[in-house]
Write a structure and sequence with these properties.
The complex is a heterodimer. Chain A is an all-alpha fold. Helix content of chain A is about 70%, strand content about 0%. In chain A, helix 2 crosses helix 14, helix 8 crosses helix 15 and helix 11 runs antiparallel to helix 14. Chain A is globular. Chain B is mainly alpha-helical. In chain B, helix 4 packs antiparallel against helix 11. The N terminus of chain B is likely disordered. The chains are: A mainly alpha, B mainly alpha. Chains A and B meet through helix 2, helix 4, helix 5, helix 6 and helix 11 of A and helix 2, helix 4, helix 5, helix 6 and helix 7 of B.
Chain lengths: ~300, ~300
């Protein structure tokens, strides 16, 4: 039911012009010009990243964007692996991100459900507090959080300390709530009369029905710890715990001054950091619903 | 047993329900999230206010150190600090470039993407690639593109600035602003795409009946129809703009050249963590948050006038 409307708003084009207007055909091509220019600006740098990473000494000239297949090598990937230990840093990124996803999926869905469909005193207060706190920039809280987590709790250089500030993504909770609200009330009444517990209603009725929205919220949640630099950078002093983004940033800031053309290895590291995210988004592209992101706009 | 249990419990349950609401289990469901919000947002926020009035510094857990109360001294120092002035100027440069560019380009691209066009899925995916990319990786690409011997300079030839973009005091901030705009556009395009679905089609039909051409109906129907989304876009980019850190840290090599591209958050990091003056850093952070709040308020007022 709701999922159907979601699909329509999300992945189907909503034609503004009525089909069958022959003179409109050329308009479609005019529309394509800004779109193509945009796509070039957005995608070319990534193509260029991969192509340059595959050249032992990247060629900065225009011809470097179109190298002959014979000149390609994996030397830079070996180079960056020697510098920042890709398996270890990738595993750290994975643990950090996995912990955040798990907490958001469990506690975030519970909170979103309670805020959307359960009646208890003080619910509105929690909701407005959520909205209010979302406006606070994380960077402002960073110094006190650092004192709290690293100094008071002694969680500096631990995975837990790294995960804590990101544990439950408030934006995801907000999206969960918006989507759970759209489900018909009668359905919940019926399930409750049948004696289903709230946990059962949530896991067996609500979650299967809102799978695209949950996936979208989790995808949005995924990118924040995976890409995050500042917090794990502050909290990790030990090399063994550094996620890939932090290790690569440290590599860029130290090596850039020393090497003449360090870009090959930097770009190889960047490729390793970027590819999992892009693959994930392409795989879930069909599930990725704009309406989940836009739920804030419609309010 | 299942049939009798509810009748037995009903009296006490009714009492609980009138006080706490229909489903008191809701408290249990929101509890972890509420604890999280209090611990990660609310408490640090008040702690930041507290710290900003002290000459605070980090010490090992349990160590007793003197952290004298200094009143508004941290705030006074921030107002007089030339680095803070540069950071504020940089945020303004950033906003002047980023906000209009973001609103205009994402609105046009979202509208173009909303019609019947070939390769729609490809375009949609292409646009959010920079948004989902780690800043560290994207910065690596831009370092390569805009280095003194990079592709951009090769294409521009003699037109390329000297000194090169990222070490040029005049260009460092505009490049950072362009970079952040480029990186964030995908998200704003998706926001506008979602918002476009809420504009009633009848409005476009009416505009067409009135003889409005494509551009006119974009200006008369689409732009006003997207106003709530625009408000959100503007406020979000102001918040992003006040918070950039990775860019001055990596793209311009630590706020360079000669501190000309420092941002408030970069200063918070430098003063708070590197130089161990967290009280001073907290004061800068609070002034920054206040500034964001004021600018967002002004935006809201301007964009929601009628």
């Amino acid at each position: 039911m709701t999922t159907v409307t979601t699909e329509q708003a999300g992945s189907r084009p909503q034609p503004l012009e009525t089909p069958g207007h022959g003179e409109r055909t050329w308009m479609r091509w005019v529309r394509l010009i800004p779109l193509l220019a945009g796509a070039l600006v957005f995608v070319f740098p990534f193509y260029y990243m991969v192509v340059s990473a595959l050249q032992k000494t990247p060629n900065p000239g225009i011809s470097g964007a179109f190298p002959s297949p014979a000149s390609l090598s994996l030397a830079n990937f070996v180079g960056i692996n020697n510098a920042i230990n890709l398996p270890r840093t990738l595993a750290n990124s994975g643990l950090f991100t996995g912990g955040v996803l798990l907490c958001t999926l469990v506690f975030g869905v519970l909170a979103g459900y309670a805020l959307a469909q359960l009646h208890f005193r003080g619910k509105q207060v929690v909701f407005y507090a959520l909205i209010l706190l979302l406006v606070l920039p994380f960077q402002l809280l960073m110094i006190p959080l650092y004192v709290l987590i690293a100094r008071d709790f002694g969680l500096g250089d631990t995975l837990l300390g790294m995960i804590l500030p990101f544990a439950i993504n408030p934006t995801a909770v907000f999206i969960f709530r918006q989507f759970f609200m759209q489900l018909p009330k009668d359905m919940f009444e019926a399930a409750r009369i049948d004696g289903a517990s709230e946990v059962a209603i949530l896991t067996q009725v609500v979650m299967p029905l809102t799978r695209p929205a949950i996936l979208t919220a989790l995808l949005i949640t995924f990118i924040s710890p995976w890409n995050e630099l500042l917090w794990p950078f502050l909290i990790t002093k030990r090399l063994e715990l550094e996620p890939l983004a932090v290790a690569l940033a440290n590599y860029i800031s130290t090596v850039a001054q020393r090497a003449a053309n360090p870009y090959g290895t930097i770009l190889a590291g960047a490729t390793v950091l970027v590819v999992p995210v892009i693959v994930l988004f392409l795989v879930f592209q069909r599930q990725f619903v704009e309406s989940a992101i836009g739920s804030g706009v419609k309010g | 047993l299942a049939a009798t249990a509810p009748t037995q419990r009903r009296p006490s349950r009714n009492w609980v329900r009138t006080v706490l609401g229909e489903q008191p289990i809701g408290y249990l469901f929101v509890a972890p999230f509420v604890i999280f919000l209090v611990g990660i947002y609310a408490y640090p926020f008040f702690y930041a206010i507290y710290m900003s009035f002290f000459d605070y510094f980090f010490a090992a857990p349990g160590a007793e150190v003197d952290r004298p109360f200094v009143g508004l001294a941290n705030y006074a120092r921030a107002l007089q600090d030339p680095l803070v002035h540069i950071a504020i100027r940089n945020v303004l440069i950033f906003l002047v470039i980023n906000v209009p560019l973001t609103v205009a380009v994402s609105m046009v691209l979202a509208t173009a993407l909303n019609g019947v066009i070939p390769f729609r899925a490809f375009f949609r995916a292409a646009y959010y690639v920079p948004y989902i990319t780690a800043s560290v990786a994207a910065v690596g690409i831009w370092l390569w593109l805009f280095s003194g011997f990079g592709l951009v300079d090769k294409i521009l030839g003699p037109l390329a600035p000297n000194p090169s973009w990222l070490v040029n005091a005049g260009w460092a901030m505009p490049i950072i602003a362009l970079y952040v705009t480029w990186k964030g556009l995908g998200f704003y395009i998706l926001l506008y795409l979602a918002a476009l679905q809420t504009i009633p089609k009848e409005l476009y039909e009416a505009a067409r009946v009135d003889g409005a051409r494509r551009v006119a109906s974009f200006l008369v129907v689409t732009v006003p129809g997207l106003r709530p989304a625009t408000l959100l876009v503007v406020i979000t980019s102001v918040i992003t703009g006040a918070n950039f850190f990775t860019e001055p840290y990596l793209l311009t090599g630590g706020g360079g050249p000669d501190n000309q591209s420092v941002s408030p958050v970069f200063l918070i990091y430098r003063f708070g963590i590197e130089q161990n003056h967290p009280g001073y850093a907290a004061a800068i952070g609070l002034m920054l948050a206040l500034g964001v709040l004021v600018i967002s308020g002004i935006n809201r007022f301007v964009l929601e006038r009628e």
